Amino acid sequence: MFKHILVALDGSTTASLALDEAITIAKESGSTVRGIYVIDAYHVIPEVEFITVKEVIDSMRHEGNVILAEAQKKLDRAGLNANTSILETGPSCGRISEVIAKEAKSWPADLIVVGTHGRKGFSHLFLGSVAESIVRVATKPVLLIRGQEKKH
Questions:
Q1: Are the beta carbons of 150 and 119 closer than 8 angstroms?
Q2: Domains in the chain, please, with CATH?
Q3: How many CB atoms lie under 10 A from the CB of residue 54?
Q4: CA separation, residue 89 to residues 14, 39, 147 (Å)
Q5: Closest to 40 measured CA to CA, from 25, 16, 59
Q6: Bridge pairing between strands 82-88 and 111-116
Q7: Cβ distance 37 to 9 under 8 Å?
Q8: Is 125 exposed, middle or buried (0-12, 13-18, 19+ CB in 10 A)?
Q9: Which of 21, 42, 43, 98 could form a disulfide with 94 if both were Cys (CB 3.0 to 4.6 A apart)?
Q10: What's CA 109's distance to the chain center, in Å?
């Protein structure tokens, strides 16, 4: 059913759950998986005396490489045909959700899998939702994987 599955990764627990689900689906359908990490260069602060934009971007790229290396190990252990890629936002390529939707279209993915924190109220208002935005802009099917509820 799905030949190409794109999974968005950011190092969070929900992204890890999304990767697990993408692996499950890929095993069942013989799919190729692409894990992506998006550097949000769009919101990098202007340079200040003690840090440069390049240093911030380099740090995000390093974090992305670490996250994608771990994801690739997991995909390899699952025996899947898989690859990873770092993408970047910016004025010419849009926000995180737009970058993910464009990658899904150009790769071409049959399914986008993304974790969602399921925030509500003020935290959703202030933090927004990349997952919700992907659902709005993507032309491919999107599978949202919710985080696990904390037990009180």
A1: no
A2: 32-122+131-146 (3.40.50.620)
A3: 10
A4: 21, 6, 25
A5: 59
A6: unpaired
A7: yes
A8: exposed
A9: 98
A10: 13
Reported as a single tens digit per residue, the pLDDT across 74-83 is 999 999 999 9
What distance in Å separates the CA atoms of residue 138 and residue 116, rounded to the nearest whole number? Answer: 16
Q: Are strands 111-116 and 142-146 parallel, antiparallel or unpaired?
A: parallel
From the list 57, 129, 123, 67, the residue with the least C-alpha distance to 100 is 129
CA separation, residue 84 to residues 60, 68, 120 (Å) = 16, 6, 31
How far is residue 103's CA from residue 43's CA, in Å, rounded to a whole number?
Answer: 20
Contacts of 13 (CB under 8 A, 6+ apart): 115, 147, 148
* Residue 15 contacts residue 9 (beta carbons within 8 Å): yes
Question: In which residue are the tokens 């208002």 written?
Answer: 125
Amino acid identity, residue 55?
A: E
Residue 97 class from Cβ within 10 Å (0-12 exposed, 13-18 middle, 19+ buried)?
Answer: buried
Joined together, the tokens standing for residue 17 give 């759950």
pLDDT at site 119: 59
Are 97 and 136 in contact, with CB atoms under 8 Å apart?
yes
Residues 6+ apart with CB under 8 A from 108: 4, 140
Put simply, whether the predicted model's pTM sits higher than 0.85 gets the answer: yes
